[in-house]
Automatic annotation (TrEMBL), chains A, B:
Function: S-adenosyl-L-methionine-dependent methyltransferase that catalyzes four methylations of the modified target histidine residue in translation elongation factor 2 (EF-2), to form an intermediate called diphthine methyl ester. The four successive methylation reactions represent the second step of diphthamide biosynthesis.
Single biological process term from Gene Ontology: methylation
Protein name: diphthine methyl ester synthase
Pfam family, any one: TP_methylase
Source organism superkingdom: Eukaryota
Source organism: Dioscorea zingiberensis
């Protein structure tokens, strides 16, 4: 049996009782470390906290490993229970879908244990989930690569009065350009897009495209460390949010559409003074 | 302290460790019973299963009670810890936002403990969450009340190639028309919209509006008891799904937009033969 277990957004205590049972019944545990930072710090003591709670070792499976060693993971799962642990909900990212498809093709039983993800926990900012349009991703711009397909989507959502959830880029374990040129893999340090970078990129694109999709005065909500004890939510114009120190990653951003009175009341609590 | 604790979608075991800690620290527990059926059966033994797990009594707070006795709940929370338990994630429904707004206005500390909801768990059907447009609600049609504002939204989503999550109507504790006329409250038995009813209503609206938003051949995914042990997922045309017995509630429906190959592969597993 292959369990795909969502860990939620906060720390090791955000696993469900059902998830913990699956973990305890498993002879092998993997945790994905690439679709998002374990905000509870896989990089430092997060992994050992997981292992302590579960009472058994956990193997960190980065993107490469999952892609290269999927056969091995699935072969183990055909002989005993294997849990693949995922930050947030299992279906936040395509890669897990890949693993599930391959498992099902092999006739393996797959059980998904759901948990919170940014896609629903974002409701905490007070904007109703059913009033969101298409979600967009904002990638880090480089000198030569400035993809802005998010622009038309945001414009469309705003024309329809809908909110837009902007997922901000995460770069972990990216081979450095230099190392690729030299033929061996060295990795760049991880990079997490901040609300500030996102807003600056958004305004840069608006200045170029001039489609009036949004402007410096457009209402937004910036969220840092969603679902964590120290989460920070701030609402205000894009300019307002550029003056807020959101602190450590992960960040995300909502561009606000038309609002109802209850939504307004909630945003008021988070307003930048 | 007021905790708003998400219970997730399956049964009592879907609470998180963090949620269970909040419950254990609370002197008073309420569980909402109106925004969705506890699929784990609050109506029969679900409540006693919750009480057994928590080791303390749980008060069922229906819509009326939350609206009428919010002051009382908030006053208790100002003196000790109170947990308000919610099926799915706390911010799936507006009513919890109301309660949070009132608590914050009183200066009460509010902590939200997230969990899975239909808005992210729907990812299990294989369609990528960021490829969904605006979510729609399909209400029960009556002889005289046939609101179809969902139609334009679905049409727009489909024109953009996006998937549409259709939340299907739930009627619990509705006063019967007869009882209202007699001036005392009697309640209709609970009613949950099935995938079949939803599809029939959708096709009826398309026949009237003739906007080619969708047709009998449009690809859909029907899901029953999402996140439960016995969840059922079936993909196929609207006509195909009319031949599937989805069984007990809750049901929901996805109208499929443009698909990527990985999405196609997943839908294939759930295809009606």
């Amino acid at each position: 049996m292959l369990y795909i277990v969502g860990l939620g957004l906060g720390d090791e205590k955000d696993i469900t009782l059902r998830g913990l049972e699956a973990v305890q019944s498993s002879s092998k545990l993997y945790v994905e470390a690439y679709t998002s930072l374990l905000s509870f710090g896989l990089s430092s003591d997060g992994l050992s906290r997981l292992e302590k709670l579960y009472g058994k070792p956990v193997t960190v499976a980065d993107r490469e490993m999952v892609e290269e060693r999927a056969d091995e993971i699935l072969s183990e799962a055909s002989e005993s229970n294997v849990s693949f642990l995922v930050v947030g909900d299992p279906f936040g990212a395509t890669t897990h879908t890949d693993l599930v498809v391959r498992a099902k093709q092999l006739g393996l039983e797959v059980k998904v244990i759901h948990n919170a993800s940014v896609m629903n926990a974002i409701g905490v900012c007070g904007l109703q989930l059913y009033r969101y349009g298409e979600t967009v991703s904002i990638p880090f711009f480089t000198e030569t690569w400035r993809p802005d397909s998010f622009y038309e989507k945001i414009k469309r959502n705003r024309e329809l009065g809908l909110h837009t959830l902007c997922l901000l880029d995460i770069r972990v374990k990216e081979p450095s350009l230099e190392s690729l040129c030299r033929g061996r893999k060295c990795y760049e340090p991880p990079k997490y897009m901040t609300v500030h970078i996102a807003i600056n990129q958004l305004l840069e694109v608006e200045a170029l495209r001039k489609g009036s999709a949004y402007c410096e005065k457009s209402k937004c909500v910036g969220i840092a460390r969603l679902g964590n004890e120290d989460q920070l939510i701030a609402s205000g114009s894009m300019t307002d949010l550029l003056n807020v120190d959101f602190g450590a990653p992960l960040h995300c951003l909502v561009i606000v559409g038309e609002t109802h009175p209850v939504e307004e009341e909630m945003l008021e609590f988070y307003k930048v003074k």
